[in-house]
Amino acid sequence: MWQVLLSRRFEKQLKKENPETARRILQDLSILKEDPLKGNAVQDTRARKINLRYIEVARDYRTFYKIEDKRVLVEFYYKRESCYEEVRRYLETLKL
Asked: How far apart are CA 13 and CA 11, in angstroms?
């Protein structure tokens, strides 16, 4: 069983979300406790350096997370239409 931790950034995003959507997102994250490797790896060399992965949640969203030891750190989520652009910006800020 994996330990799932939510980042402050993720929690702030979730508070601003519609309550029904937030509930569905949290419900779909339960799969990470069982096997976070079921998610997809982000296809970017910078993302591979930090082991950034994502899963589809609440049908229209992508949740991005990192795996460290037996912990899963949920970083952020975005709607499918804008998520890859947001991930690109996130990776640029890390200066990898």
From this structure: 5
Q: How far is CA 54 from the centre of its chain?
A: 5
Measured over all CA atoms, what is the biggest interatomic distance in the chain, rounded to whole angstroms?
A: 36
Q: Tell me the whole-structure pTM to 2 decimals.
A: 0.93
Phi/psi class of residue 95: alpha, beta or left (left: φ > 0; alpha: ψ in -120 to 50)? left
Q: Which residue has the tokens 């079921």?
A: 38
Q: What single letter denotes the amino acid at residue 40? A: N
pLDDT < 50: residue spans in the chain: none
Q: How far is Cα 93 from Cα 62, in angstroms, rounded to an integer?
A: 20
pLDDT recorded at residue 37: 93
- Scan for tokens 């800020």, then name that residue: 93
Domains of the chain (ranges; CATH) run 3-94 (3.30.2310.20)
